[in-house]
Each structure stands twice: as structure tokens, then as C-alpha cells.
Amino acid sequence: MIHHALTELRALRERVPGVTNSLLAAVDGLLVVADAEETVDTESLSALAAAGLGLARRTSAALGQGVFRQNVVYSSAGYLAVYAVGDGALMAVLGDEGLQIGRLHQEAQPTIERIAAIFSAPEAAAS
Q1: Which long-range contacts (CB under 8 A, 24 or more apart) does 60-69 make?
Q2: Superkingdom of this entry's organism (predicted)?
Q3: Per-position pLDDT tens, the chain of length 127
Q4: Order of strands across the sheet that contains 19-26
Q5: Contacts of 47 (CB under 8 A, 6+ apart)
Q6: Residues β-bridged to residue 20
Q7: Closest to 29 measured CA to CA, from 66, 3, 4, 55
Q8: How far apart (Å, rounded) are the C-alpha atoms in residues 94 and 79?
Q9: What span, in angstroms and rounded, lies between the C-alpha atoms of 12 and 74?
């Protein structure tokens, strides 16, 4: 299960120019798996992404704008995009300043659907 999810993260990096690192985490910030360089503190990133996800979900609900889908932080040297993966998980993607954000959004949705299917499969429920 984890291996399949990691394969999806690696494939996303290969398909989208500018993606540098990514991870899957539970909504409580617990790291599940990461495709990341050793210099990335994946535990901290998981916690920060979860906090951002919680805030974004509450904001979406308070504004009456439907279900949260994604949150993007654009900094001077790159991006952090956080996507909901069902109700219990998130996918965080880091990119450099050359990240094609539109392409990332386009490629992220089918990736999220495949990852959600991996974690909802019967063998995942038995784990």
C-alpha cells in the first residue's frame, strides 16, 4: 500500500516540471510517506500542511464556498500546494520557482483519486 502511494508521488514529480518534493500525511499531521530530499524536514512539513489544511477547510466552510480542494502558498523561491485526499489525508507538494502550477493542479486530481483508492482498498482497511 505505502509502496503504491510512493510510486504515485514519484510519478507526479516526473510528470510535472518544477515539482521537487511531495508527501502524504494524515490530517492530524502524521507523515505517511514522502518522496523528498534528505534536506526536507518531512515531519515538520506534514504538521504544517495539516494545520494549513484544517484552517483552509474551516475557512471554506465559514464562507459557504463548498468543500476544500487545495491551498497554495507562493513564496519568493517556490510553492507549497496542499490537497485534500478524502477526509482523512492530505498530499503536500513542494515546487521550485519554475513549477508549472496549472499543470500541477491538472495532474494532482487524478493522482489524488488513485491514492485515495489505494488507501480505501480492502487490504488497506485490514492494516
Answers
A1: none
A2: Bacteria
A3: 899 999 999 999 999 999 999 999 999 999 999 999 999 999 999 999 999 999 999 999 999 999 888 999 999 999 999 999 999 999 999 999 999 999 999 999 999 999 999 888 765 544 5
A4: 31-35, 19-26, 89-96, 78-85, 70-75
A5: 29
A6: none
A7: 55
A8: 6
A9: 19
Q: Which CATH superfamily is domain 2-126 in?
A: Dynein light chain 2a, cytoplasmic (3.30.450.30)
CA distance to 32, 35, 41, 115, 125, per residue, from 38 (Å): 16, 10, 8, 23, 30
Residue with cell 493522482: 111
Question: Grid coordinates representing 112?
Answer: 489524488
CA distances from 65 to 24, 68, 82, 92 (A): 25, 8, 18, 22
User: How many CA atoms does the CB half-sphere of 102 hold within 13 Å?
Assistant: 0
